[in-house]
Amino acid sequence: MDAEKYWHREIEQCQHMCLTRNTSAIKFFDATHGTTETGHKLFMVCTNDYLGLRFHPEVIEAAQKCMHDGGFGSSGARLTTGTHPLANQLEQNLACFKCSEAALIFNTGYMANLGLISAIGRSGDVIFSDEKNHASIIDGCKLSKAKVVIYAHRDMGQLKELLNKYRYAQSRFIITEGVFSMDGTITPLPNLAGLAEAFDAHIIIDDAHSLGVLGKDGHGILEHFRMQPSPRIIQVGTCSKALGSLGGFVCGTKTLIQYLRQCSRPFLCSTMLPPAALAASLKALQILRSEPERVRRLKWFSETAKNVFLESGISFPSESTAIFPLVTGDEALTMKIFESLYQRGIYLAAIRYPSVPFGHARLRLSVCSEYPEDEWRNALLDIASTIKTVVGHF
Ligand SMILES: Cc1ncc(COP(=O)(O)O)c(C=O)c1O
User: Fold this and answer.
1) Cα of 59 from ligand 1 centre, angstroms
2) Which residues are catalytic?
3) Using CA of residue 94, residue 100, residue 101, residue 105, what is the dihedral sign?
4) Burial profile 23-47: b = 16 or more Cβ within 10 angstroms, e = fewer
5) What's 274's DSSP letter?
6) 94 near 103, Cβ under 8 Å?
7) How far is CA 71 from CA 64, 67, 106, 274, 278, in A?
8) Which residues sit with their C-beta closer than 6 Å to ligand 1?
């Protein structure tokens, strides 16, 4: 079959299975509201901008000033002409916030995972990866030369058996998300740390959805479990979610970061982020430090969602995070609920294969500290009643 025919067949298959996606535009006018090109106003209840910082006046001002003073693009990769002073400053601040010795910035969180995992996974190593890990972790594993072994989601018993089986491997890396992006579940880090110690393994933890969310002051999963940093724990993160900006990062020992500077191809061979994005991330991080009440407000809004769903009999397998997966398990049903809410002015993301396995379709609600209180509560009630009407029961 020639390529065009194959593409055509795949598109038809997607339509047939209710998996078609489109890129229709929504223009945001504040952190939680947007309008379509036809002027339909939407309350966005699936943002990753958990603290509403991308619209913070100081974040915008920092980016504007940076652009005004030094232009937009960065003109090259970090090791040629792309190391703006703000890059070093942001790395120092991120390392400090994540209680690590050092940090390295990548262009996105996706590239941070690719750049880290592909660089550290050598032939003879074994990577143990949670089955629900994000695509960027899976792709990083594919690019590495290590053997990759998948363990069932958060199954510490199975992980222990696998670590034991591969105890003579050259090096062992356990890779997991802190808060799982599609399920809102939290990885059992204390148990992982115990296993890592017992089997002399490193833990790579992708804290994309924990920064600004977990822990009293939003430092992430280590703070959540009141754990001390350790050279065994490598933290990955992104500035594109709770910091409302753009850019990924890896935090770890000085040796690891220096090694990545020399050997990580996505770091070496791609033009650096625009300095304005660095300025925005830096300012957002400062605001997160100085306004921890945003994190508390986020938790309070999460509690509201829990209470409304409990009272309405809607099941949600979520823990204390900003993500609520409302799993229908059916692609067509999920799209029906999405469309019904969309018509009512609520944008709740429909998540389907390949973001989750086929047959695990869901609506992914997320919390933002800047939701207007009444609108949030009304939207939750609306979501609950729409789900019940469309599904019959849930
Ligand atoms: C767990 C996880 N890691 C990494 C990423 C990628 O981050 P970025 O959007 O900055 O590329 C995402 C984004 O969805 C994510 O959910």
Assistant:
1) 21
2) 181, 209, 241
3) negative
4) eeeeeeeebbbbeeeeeeebbbbbb
5) P
6) yes
7) 10, 5, 20, 9, 13
8) 108-110, 113, 134, 136, 177, 181, 206, 208-209, 238, 240, 248
- What are residue 249's DSSP bridge partners? 105, 237
Walk along the chain (394 residues) and give the pLDDT tens digit of each residue.
899 999 999 999 999 999 998 888 999 999 999 999 999 999 999 999 999 999 999 999 999 999 999 999 999 999 998 899 999 999 999 999 999 999 999 999 999 999 999 999 999 999 999 999 999 999 999 999 999 999 999 999 999 999 999 999 999 999 999 999 999 999 999 999 999 999 999 999 999 999 999 999 999 999 999 999 999 999 999 999 999 999 999 999 999 999 999 999 999 999 999 999 999 999 999 999 999 999 999 999 999 999 999 999 888 876 879 999 999 999 999 999 999 999 999 999 999 999 999 999 999 999 999 999 999 999 999 999 999 998 875 4
β-pairing verdict for 362-366 and 323-327: antiparallel
Q: What is the CATH number of domain 57-290?
A: 3.40.640.10
**DSSP states along 207-260:** -TTTTTTSSTTS--HHHHTTPPP-TTEEEEEESSSTTSS--EEEEE-HHHHHHH
Q: Range(s) for CATH 3.90.1150.10 in the chain?
A: 19-48+292-391
Structure tokens at 261: 């500077």
Query: What are the φ and ψ backbone dihedral angles of 319, each rounded to 5 degrees?
Result: -105, -155
Report the atom number in ligand 1 closest to the C-alpha of 113. Answer: 4
Ramachandran sector of residue 235 (left: φ over 0; alpha: ψ -120 to 50; beta: rest): beta
Task: Using alpha carbons, select from 242, 312, 254 the residue that is nearest to residue 281.
Answer: 242
Closest ligand 1 atom to the C-alpha of 181? Answer: 16
Helix, strand, or coil here: 275? helix
* CATH 3.40.640.10 domain range(s) in the chain: 57-290
CATH for the 19-48+292-391 domain, from 3.40.50.880, 1.10.3720.10, 3.90.1150.10, 3.40.50.2000? 3.90.1150.10
Query: What pTM, to 2 d.p., does this model score?
Result: 0.96
